[in-house]
Structure formats: C-alpha cells, structure tokens
Specification:
The complex is a heterotrimer of chains A (275), B (292) and C (284). Chain A is 39% helix and 23% strand. With 275 residues, chain A is an alpha/beta fold. Chain A is globular and about 55 Å long. The termini of chain A are far apart. Chain B has 292 residues and is mainly alpha-helical. Chain B folds into 2 domains: 39 residues; 227 residues, MetI-like fold (Orthogonal Bundle). Helices cover 77% and strands 0% of the residues of chain B. In chain B, helix 5 crosses helix 6, helix 7 packs antiparallel against helix 8 and helix 11 packs across helix 12. Helix content of chain C is 76%, strand content 0%. Chain C starts with a helix and ends with a helix. Classes of the chains: A alpha/beta (275), B mainly alpha (292), C mainly alpha (284). The interface between B and C is large, with 84 and 88 residues.
Chain lengths: 275, 292, 284
C-alpha cells in the first residue's frame, strides 16, 4: 500500500474495483465510426468502441455478424481480402493504424493474433516460437533461446516440451498446439493479443487450460477474444460486445451484459432465443 | 529499405512471369516473319490448293495439303484407337474397379505417357509394322497405320487419366440417386455420370488430338517421308512435323527457300494446335464456373 | 430373358471389356519393354557406355550422346528451375487479381500445348541465328528450358496452392512481410511438390528429340562437349540415328540405348513419385 499512498486519493478509493480504475486510463484501442464493405456487401455498419488496457474484451454474436471481421481490423489481416474496403479510424495507443505511413509489419508485432484452428508451422517447436524473432533479423542465439523458454513457460508448455524442442510442432496434441501458437505470439512481445475463437477446435480440458492462461495473460496484455461460447465470455472477460448483422448492438461490462442487458436483442441472444 | 527489397523481389518475379509472354510473342513473330518471306515467293492460293509438296526437288511444288492430310490421317488413326480404349479404361477405373486397383493402375498407365517418343517410334517400326505385315501382306515398311496405332497407345493415358479425374469428381449423390432407382452400374455410368462429366471428357479428347497432331518422332520414324494426298493407311506418307525434321537433318542454309518452308509448315501446325488448346481452355473455364 | 437380366448381362460384359482395355494398356507396356530388353540387353556393357560413336555397330557406344544429355539436363535445370518457380510464385502470390494475371494464365496454358517441334523452330531462329549461339549445348538447353517452363510453373502453382492458408495467416500475424512469408513458410512447405514437378519436367526434357534436331543438334559428334558453346548430340537423337540405319547391328544398338534412356526416364519418374508421396503425407 506504500505506492498507493503517493497516488492521488481518488485512485486509491477505487483500487478495489479494477474495472473502474481502468476507465480512467486512455483507451488501448479506440474505434470511431468504422465501416467495412466486401464489394457491395456492408459487413460492418459504423462502429465506435474503446478498449481499455489490461482487460479481456469478448466479442459475441451469431455467425456472420461481423465480429471476426471487426477483430481482424486491429492487425489489418483483412488487407489480404481482395474486395475489402474500409472507412473510419482505428487508433492503437493513440495512433491511427490505417494511415498510409503505418508499417503493417511493425503493427503486427504490437498486435498478436491467435487463430481458430491451431496453426503451428510445419517446423520444430523451437523454430515455431523463434520465427517472429527470426524475421525481425535477430541473430543473437542466446537471446532467442531465452525468449523461447520464457514464452513457453508463460503458456505452461515448457515442462511438457523442454526435452523435445526439435520435434515438429504438428506432433503435439490440439491443445498443446494452440498453446504453442500463443507462445509464438508472446515471443514477439506484443501489447495486444487478438484471439479468434481460440478454443472452438479444442476439447473441454484444453479449453479450460487456455481460459486459465488468458486470465494470467491479462496482467501483461490487452486481450480481445471472439467467441461463440457465451459461458466462456462470461467466465473470462471483463467487457462484452454483442454484434448483430454488422452492427454493435451493446457494449458493456460483462456482468451487466449477462445480468441486465439494456437491449432486447442482446437479451434474446444471451438467453438462447436465437443465434 | 525493407519496402524497397520487397518491391525489387516482386518486380523480378513479375519479370520471370513475363518471359512466358515473350515466348508466345517470339513464337508468333518467328513463324510469321519467315512465313511472310515464304509467301513473297509462293502464292498463298497454291499453298492451300496445290496437291503436291516437293520443295526439295528441282520441280518445286508448295501445296501444304499432302502434309496436312498425312498429319490428319495419323492423328485420326491414333484417336480412333485411343478413344474407345481410353474411355473404357476411365469408366472402368472410376465406376467398377476396386479403389486399391485404381490407385496402382493409374500411375502405371501414366507411365505410358512418360516414355520418350523416339522409343515409340522404334516400337512402331521394329515391332508393330512387321506384326501388321503378317496380317496385311501389302502393308509397306513405312505407313500411317502402325505410326497411328502406336501414337494411339501413347495418348491412351491422356484420355483415360483426365477423363477418370472428371468422372471421379462427379458427386456421389448422383450415383446413389441412380442406384436407388434400380439402375445398373453401366446404366448409371452412361446415362448419368458420363453426361455429368462430359466437359472434362471433351477436354481430354481435345488435348489428345492436339498432342497427336504435334507428335513428331513416331511419324518421322515409322510413317515415311513421302508427302502424298491419300487416305490409304498402308502407304508411306509424310506429316508436317516429319517434314520439319527431314529438312532439319539436312544442311539447310538460313534464308534459303527450304529454310522458310519449315516455318510455313510450322505455322500451319501452330494454328491448328492453338485453336484446339484455346477451345479446351475455354471449355475448362466454363465448366469451372458452372460448379463453383 | 427379361430386361433386368439383360441389363445385368450388359453390365457384366462392360466390366470385362473395361478390364480387357486396362490390361491391354498394361500388356502393351510390358510387351514393349520386354521386346526392347530382348533386343538390346546383351548389347549393354561398360564398353557400350564409354565408347565413341563409330561406323561399325559393334564398336559404337553412347558416350558422347550420354554426356550431351547430361550437359543439356544440367543447363536446362539451372535455366528453367529459377525462372519457372519465380513465375509460379508471382502468379500464385502476387498477381492474383489483376488483368495481367488472367492473360498470363491463358498464355501459359496455351504454351503447355504448343508442339515441342515449334519450340525447336523458335530456338533455331532466336538462339541459333539471332543470338548467334550456333547449334550449341547452350542453344539446346535454352530451347528445352522454354519448352518445360509451363510445366514447372503449373507445378509450382499447384504446390503453393496446397499450402494451408492458416500458415500464411500465422506468419503475417507475427509481422512477417510478404516475401518473408513466402521464403520461410510457403516455399519450404511446398518444396516437395515443386521438386516433383521439376523432376517430371526434366524427365520430359531428357526424352525430347524433335526440338533439338531442329535446333541443329548433330547425329554424329566425335567428342563429348566440354563447354556450353560446344556442339552436342543427345541420347534420343543417337537412338533416332541408329534406327534409321539399315544394318541390323544398329537396331540392336538402338534397343540398348533405349534401355538406358528408359532407365533414366523411369528413375526420374520414380524419384518424383517418391517426393510427391512424402510431401502429400505431410499435410494429412
């Protein structure tokens, strides 16, 4: 409590409520009036959103509601879709990431991504984790080794694979593969991690391990996760955003969304009346 | 720095791709320029109507018809032989044969297409012609019949493999629907599967024809070097390709009339195969759109 | 006999007809190889491989032709491989949506169907005459390179297409540039397929006769080539030359040389199939 003594009094008061505290900080990601089209189809219809640092934000909604498209805007993975067109602003750490001058590769080091299906490279476990460093041109072997070890430890995979670092990443089980993919992302030291339904291809035990991990990672990273599983959203997230037909219907504290949503559509979806 | 490197790489990859365009332009230019010079001395009407091709003799005639008829005759024999056999194989493999049999047989048949054509030429001349002479005693030593048959053997895998792929790609539901109505495998194959896979089968046939028209060594070795306008498969003839080989083997001066004739013959060949290839490409594209 | 029985009979009849046709294809292959083996196998010995061509069939060997084939194969590989793979990468990864890519695709598909002898005419005019390379190993290799370019490009594209897009996504998401993704992930993952295609293309090149005859390769060369500017012969041309001689001894020589040519071709095909199977199992 010594540190907090030096801080302004209003922060000390709200210390027991982390969510309220983070509201005071500048947003990690700030989205203003974003619209997305694929050819003539409008996939995102003007969304505003602010995501706080060191929180877990869950995106929920029926399939095709635009939540994955929206997530992929944050690291510009949609750039590779031929017919993709976008309007609006997305600021990460107050910098517009869709400005012409932005180096997309640099952005992606800052904003990591974990995919729906575990997708390790067809290479050794070590090379999988070291890849992000290799492409940055880092050659210091000792540094790479240390980073690989620390990343694997963060995802609690180190003890399982430390004797088999040269084994192919594809030889691991599904859950281990997904943790390897998370470790691979952590090795680059991003500040934001995007997760696109990271547990939808996994069994319940592996899912539990990943959820535990997300809870741990929150201390260091800002996490945005797309999920189909509403229990998952309520278990792990601080904030929840409900999307429907390309629009953001409701965005609030997870507790509020799941206990007292303000929109009828949200309530219908959460109680399972559609979707 | 990095942006520049990426750009340089992209441009050099593009250059490699553009080489293929340069090759096409090169082929068309080379053939047309020499052919243009050829037609400055030979009337284009003679070229298409004269029934003799004797540019290497003292009394010169420049009618492409004998070479063209030789080419079409050998190709026709090849297709007449390969089409029923190749199609039967493809239907048998796709509809009747056990899966393991199919998987071992297909690559073996494809081996037929990888045999160098000069080897087929040897086979036609040394094995097939003497064998056929036992049946047709007046068959001459060089003839379009054995060259055509051996060419047919060579193109069987083109027809059987590509058609089999097309038949195999027909959705299982169609088969089940036909079986469900009590159709036999044969009825299902010919009334349902073959029509559904027709564009793929047609593509395979066109490719086989184009391959037969452009084939060189078999006809150069076994069909003879006597250009003549005939439909008789037992006598020596000469194809366009065989003529080009015949001239190339001699010592031909650049700029001479003989030199130009091989380009004039070549462009005739090129136009034929180009039309056939474009047709097959067009059918393939149309077919893809239908199913996607 | 009612119609159901009739239909069943027809069905059976076609089945046996199909078996007949399939077996005929295989039987022809066996007769074919068997006959050549009978004709030529006793002629093959070390002397046959190391002797120079000669007027007398029993003294003749394939040394110069075999060396010519090896030279041609070497230069064709180093020319066609990089260009073909680079073009394939461009078409699959860079130029997918633009109009140029459409033209390139039609063009390559058409080139793949151009008869090999036409490539010979192109080589004769461009490499032999205009570039003044003469009837050299280099002119022959350039001609064959253009001939197999479409095969290499198509094989490269197919192999790259088979790499799961999730691998690409993962690489991009870690901050890799396009080229880094291609170099570190896509090419290693597709190398088996590319290699298969290249070897198959080369096995086609090693058996080509007509374009090299047109370019001016010789039927009789007293020495093996020592530089890319030397004149040359190749195995198929040597075989063609022997077939067209009247003496029976040369037919025997042709059969023996064919055995060696077939051995090389089938071996290359075998290696290609091996790589393909090994590569396919990687994604399953």
């Amino acid at each position: 409590m010594e540190i907090s003594m030096e801080k302004p009094i209003d922060e000390v008061i709200v210390l027991d409520n982390i969510i309220d505290l983070s509201l005071k900080k500048t947003p990690k990601i700030a989205v203003s009036n974003v619209k997305v089209w694929y050819d003539d189809f409008q996939a995102i219809k003007g969304i505003d959103m602010e995501i706080k640092p060191n929180t877990v934000t869950a995106f929920i909604g029926p399939s095709g509601c635009g939540k994955s498209t929206f997530l992929r805007l944050f690291n510009r993975m949609n750039d590779y879709v031929d017919s993709f067109k976008m309007e609006g602003k997305i600021k990460i750490d107050s910098k517009n990431i869709y400005k012409k001058k932005i180096n997309v590769e640099e952005l992606r080091k800052e904003v990591g991504m974990v995919f729906q299906k575990p997708n390790p490279f067809p290479k050794s476990i070590f090379e999988n984790v070291a890849y992000g460093l290799k492409i940055q041109g880092i050659k210091d072997k000792k540094f790479i080794k240390e980073r690989v070890e620390s990343s694997l430890k963060q995802v609690a995979l180190w003890n399982e694979v430390k004797d088999n670092l040269n084994k192919s990443g594809l030889a691991l089980s599904g859950g281990q593969q997904q943790r390897l993919c998370i470790a691979r992302t952590l090795a680059v030291e991003p500040s934001i991690i995007l997760m696109d339904e990271p547990t939808s291809a996994l069994d319940p035990i592996s899912t539990a391990k990943i959820e535990e991990l997300i809870f741990e990672l929150k201390k260091k990273y800002t996490i945005v996760i797309v999920t189909h599983n509403m229990q998952q959203a309520s278990r792990i997230s601080d904030y929840t955003a409900f999307f429907y037909l390309g629009a953001l219907i409701e965005f609030d504290k997870t507790k509020t969304i799941f206990t007292n949503p303000s929109k009828e559509q949200t309530e219908n979806y959460i109680t399972g009346r559609f979707g | 720095m990095r942006k520049i490197k990426e750009l340089v790489i992209e441009k050099s990859l593009l250059t490699s791709a553009l080489i293929t365009i340069a090759v096409t332009i090169g082929i068309i230019l080379v053939l047309s320029i020499e052919t243009f010079r050829f037609f400055s001395e030979v009337s284009i009407i003679d070229f298409f109507t004269d029934t003799q091709w004797t540019p290497l003799f003292t009394e010169k005639h420049f009618g492409i018809l004998p070479l063209l008829s030789g080419t079409l005759l050998t190709s026709f024999i090849a297709i007449a032989f390969a089409l029923p056999v190749g199609l039967s194989i493809s239907i048998y493999l796709s509809e009747y044969a056990p899966k393991s049999f199919r998987k071992t047989i297909k690559p073996l048949l494809e081996l037929l297409a990888s045999v160098p054509t000069v080897v087929y030429g040897f086979f036609a001349l040394v094995v097939v012609t003497p064998f056929l002479q036992g049946i047709f005693p007046n068959l001459s030593g060089f003839n379009s019949l054995s060259a055509g048959i051996v060419m047919g053997i060579m193109i069987i895998p083109y027809i059987s493999s590509i058609s089999e792929d097309a038949l195999h790609a027909v959705p299982k539901e169609l088969r089940e629907a036909a079986f469900g109505m009590g159709a036999t495998k044969l009825q299902t194959a010919f009334k349902v599967i073959v029509p559904a896979a027709s564009s793929g089968i047609i593509v395979s046939i066109i490719l086989a024809i184009s391959r037969a028209i452009g084939e060189t060594m078999i006809v150069a070795i076994a069909a003879g070097q006597q250009p003549r306008l005939t439909l008789d498969p037992t006598v020596p003839i000469e194809t366009i390709t065989a003529y080009i080989v015949q001239v190339s083997l001699g010592d031909v001066q650049h700029g001479s009339m003989e030199y130009r004739t091989i380009f004039a013959a070549g462009i005739t060949l090129f136009v034929f195969t180009f039309l056939l290839n474009s047709l097959s490409y067009w059918i393939r594209k149309k077919y893809q759109e239908k199913y996607e | 006999m009612n119609s159901i029985q009739k239909n069943r009979l027809k069905d059976q009849a076609f089945k046996y007809w199909g078996i007949c046709c399939t077996c005929m294809g295989l039987a022809l292959l066996i007769i074919f190889i068997g006959d050549i083996l009978i004709d030529g196998i006793q002629r093959i010995d070390w002397g046959f491989i190391t002797s120079l061509p000669s007027r007398k069939p029993e003294k003749s060997g394939i040394y110069t032709a075999l060396m010519g084939s090896i030279w041609i194969l070497f230069f064709t590989t180093i020319i066609a491989f990089p260009i073909g793979v680079a073009a394939g990468i461009y078409l699959e990864e860079y130029g997918k949506k633009n109009k140029l890519a459409g033209i390139l695709e039609i063009n390559i598909s058409n080139l793949a169907g151009v008869p090999s002898i036409i490539y010979g005419l192109l080589g004769l005019e461009v490499f032999v005459r205009i570039m003044n390379l003469g009837a050299s190993v280099l002119a022959g290799s350039l001609t064959l390179s253009l001939l197999i370019l479409p095969i290499v490009i198509v094989a490269t594209r197919e192999s790259i297409k088979a790499v799961p897009s999730s691998i690409k996504d993962a690489s991009y998401a870690l901050g890799a540039s396009k080229w880094q993704t291609i170099w570190y992930q896509i090419l290693p993952a597709s190398s088996g397929g590319i290699l298969t295609g290249v070897i198959l293309a080369l096995s086609r090149a090693v058996g080509e006769t007509a374009p090299l005859i047109v370019v001016g390769a010789l039927a009789y060369v007293p020495f093996a080539p020592e530089s890319p500017m030397d004149e040359f012969s190749v195995l198929p041309i040597q075989i063609f030359n022997w077939i067209s001689r009247p003496q029976h001894g040369f037919i025997e020589n042709a059969a023996a040389a064919i055995i060696i040519l077939l051995f090389i071709t089938f071996m290359m095909n075998g290696i290609a199939v091996y790589f393909r199977n090994k590569w396919q199992s990687k994604w399953k």
